[in-house]
Amino acid sequence: MRHICLRGHTAPGTTTLSDLTARIRENIVLFGALAANLGIAVAKFVAAGITGSSSMLTEGVHSVVDSGNQVLLLYGQKRAKRAPDAAHPFGYGRELYFWAFVVAILIFAVGAGVSVYEGYLHIVEPEELTDPTINYIVIAVSAAMEGSSWWIARREFKEAKGDLGWWEAIHQSKDPPGFIVLFEDSAALAGLLIAAIGVFASHALGEPRIDGYASIAIGGVLGIVAVLLAREAKGLLIGERADPRVVARVREIVSTYPAITAVNHVRTIHTAPDSIFVAISADFDDTLTMGEGETMIEQIEQALKKAEPRLSSIYIRPEKASEAVSDGAGGQ
């Protein structure tokens, strides 16, 4: 039917109890990681100053970068929660994706860059070896604190991923803080292991340059993590569709209405981690009147919101199946 006009509905930014609980738990993880990283950074810098260890200095820079990243993610979360306005009618949720991309750049430019540079200097001009005991103490304490943070991040992400594989869940995740903290803590533990091996080998073999090579290796780990995070953040910035299960559920609900003769396509995009825009093209029965069509659209919107509360904006377009534009990659 051609005479039913395009109709859209944008739901107000309501926050459910489960959403609020999830955000509180998420911020506790970030604040806890921030406090731990600041304390660890101080300890690492003290140890590096006393022993002259390049890998310990690198690890100190790593912890400072991680602390800054957590501050940026907290800032991004706060900015993303601003209400929609005339300039941004779908809200500011995707600003969090921008800050996630900045975090990836910082890990690469500052974390990896400084690590490789310090390692190179230590190889070119190696420092005299000193008692490594303080290094081992700091590494052990740091590993315990980082391990606790990693375990919490892993537990939270495991609950969120459900039956998906780890990498598939990371790739499909629309909430950067969850997988960024997991990546950072994993890189931190790997860096501590490399630093410990570097310090031990330097003293065991009497070759201080090995500590410099360990620093470069830590930089390599950070570089890999930064590239992976940048790739995920880029996809979110460009705009990613909702989980295919959500798209299938939307199609299924719309298809149950007898007056809908065909669902041409369902296109979605995340405007925030917990906010989805959906555009539906459907072929309506030609015998439907304007009033009946409007009533049915209202019913569809209510059913969709009940089934998937994250659908913050719903647009339904009556369109002949023969005239509908091909879906392409943006829908199903």
From TrEMBL:
Transmembrane portions of the chain: 28-50, 96-114, 134-153, 187-206, 212-230
Residue stretches making up the Cation efflux protein cytoplasmic domain: 244-319
Gene3D superfamilies: Cation efflux protein transmembrane domain, Cation efflux protein, cytoplasmic domain
GO biological process terms on file: zinc ion transport
InterPro entries, sorted: Cation_efflux, Cation_efflux_CTD, Cation_efflux_CTD_sf, Cation_efflux_TM, Cation_efflux_TMD_sf, SLC30A9
Pfam families registered for this protein in UniProt: Cation_efflux, ZT_dimer
Entry keyword Nucleotide-binding: no
Domain Cation efflux protein transmembrane: 33-237
Membrane topology classification: Multi-pass membrane protein
Any one GO CC term of the record: membrane
Top-level taxon of origin: Bacteria
GO molecular function: monoatomic cation transmembrane transporter activity
UniProt entry keywords in alphabetical sequence: Membrane, Transmembrane, Transmembrane helix, Transport
UniProt main location, coarse: membrane
Compartment(s) where it occurs, according to its Swiss-Prot or TrEMBL record: Membrane
Membrane recorded as keyword: yes
Protein family: Belongs to the cation diffusion facilitator (CDF) transporter (TC 2.A.4) family.
NCBIfam families: CDF
Name used for this protein in its record: Cation diffusion facilitator family transporter
Organism: Sphingomonas palmae
